[in-house]
Design a protein that fits this description.
Strand 2 and strand 3 form a beta hairpin. This protein has helices at about 20-30, 35-40, 120, 140-150, 205-210, 280-285, 290-295, and strands at about 1-10, 70-80, 85-95, 100-110, 160-165, 170-175, 180-185, 190-200, 215, 225, 235, 235-240, 240-245, 260-270, 280. The strands form 4 sheets. Strands 5-8-3-2-14-1-15 form a 7-stranded mixed beta sheet. The two termini are about 35 Å apart. The protein has about 300 residues and is α+β, with helices and mostly antiparallel strands.
Length: about 300
């Protein structure tokens, strides 16, 4: 028996922009003896940032013609506890608010960083300094456990289909943690399009591999599933960088688009689900006591 929960959420995300030029500026300032340490914090940016335009002013703030793309999601997801997997399908409605015509879309596949052939995995190094005894030819138990976890299961998204709103298959190309989806027709400025994606993946063992999400097993054979970066999401398209589609190596975060989420979650009936959003069907999934406590909680400070 499964418990089926439905959530809706309006997502408002903070845009985080990291400029690597700041590091170069600081290094240059350190090398220049004419710049005092107190003055370095107030030095002008000069040519380090793009020229101001109608989209952004000289401080980088939104200009009079600033725009941002929109991505709305309708997702149905199921937790398969027996084999520790997620299976889902979703529809992404993408609105092109930019002045550009787009002929393809880039989608982030964050779980792909756990694939053995990912850039993140291939760029890892084994650190023998944590090994017992400090021998250069030894690995710690934790490092061995991590490698064993990767060996036992195949991780990363398994994309089962990518279709247009008309139901036709869309060509796509997966490049590490990114997927380019070619559109059947160019998406003009102000227009919207919808694509549907079906996917699944093996949930990582968080204690063994280490990440923002995964499953954790306890001594009484119960589990907690904390899932992050679990669905294909639109890469950002911006005025300052176009498509932001660099591979995800595990550190840092992303600029994302604004959008609404309509999410249906199916789990085994004995599970307790915690999620952000507004629960749409409490009568179906909560007991009378739970509904009463939830009503009381809404009135608390």
């Amino acid at each position: 028996m499964a418990a089926y929960l439905k959530f809706q959420k309006a997502l408002f995300l903070v845009t985080i922009i990291v400029f690597s030029q700041f590091g170069a500026m600081a290094a240059h300032a350190q090398d220049d003896p004419a710049i005092g340490s107190g003055a370095r914090a107030f030095q002008q940016l000069g040519q380090e940032l793009p020229t101001p335009n109608v989209y952004r002013n000289a401080a980088g703030a939104p200009g009079p013609q600033y725009w941002q793309q929109r991505a709305d999601y309708k997702i149905s997801v199921r937790l398969n506890e027996a084999d520790k997997t997620i299976a889902a399908e979703g529809i992404i409605t993408y609105t092109n608010n930019s002045p550009d015509t787009l002929r393809y879309l880039w989608v982030q596949l964050d779980q792909n960083r756990f694939r053995n052939d990912s850039l993140a995995r291939r760029s890892e190094t084994a650190d023998p300094s944590h090994a017992a005894g400090g021998g250069t030819d030894a690995l710690s138990f934790g490092a061995l456990r991590r490698h064993q976890a990767f060996h036992e299961r195949d991780h990363g998204f398994r994309i089962n289909e990518v279709k247009s709103s008309a139901g036709g298959n869309l060509p796509y190309l997966i490049v590490d943690t990114m997927m380019r989806v070619d559109l059947p027709e160019p998406l003009s400025s102000g227009a919207s399009t919808s694509i549907s994606i079906a996917w699944e993946f093996d949930i990582i063992e968080e204690r063994a591999i280490g990440a923002r999400g995964g499953y954790e097993r306890f001594e009484n054979d119960t589990y907690i599933y904390f899932l992050a970066q679990w669905f294909p999401r639109m890469a950002a398209y911006t005025d300052y960088g176009g498509w932001l589609h660099k591979p995800f190596l595990g550190g840092g975060e992303f600029t994302l688009e604004f959008g609404d989420y309509d999410v249906s979650i199916t789990t085994p009936a004995d599970h307790v689900v915690s999620a952000t959003g507004v629960l749409q069907n409490p009568q179906d999934v909560l007991s009378e006591k739970q509904r009463r406590l939830l009503a009381e909680a809404r009135l608390k400070d």
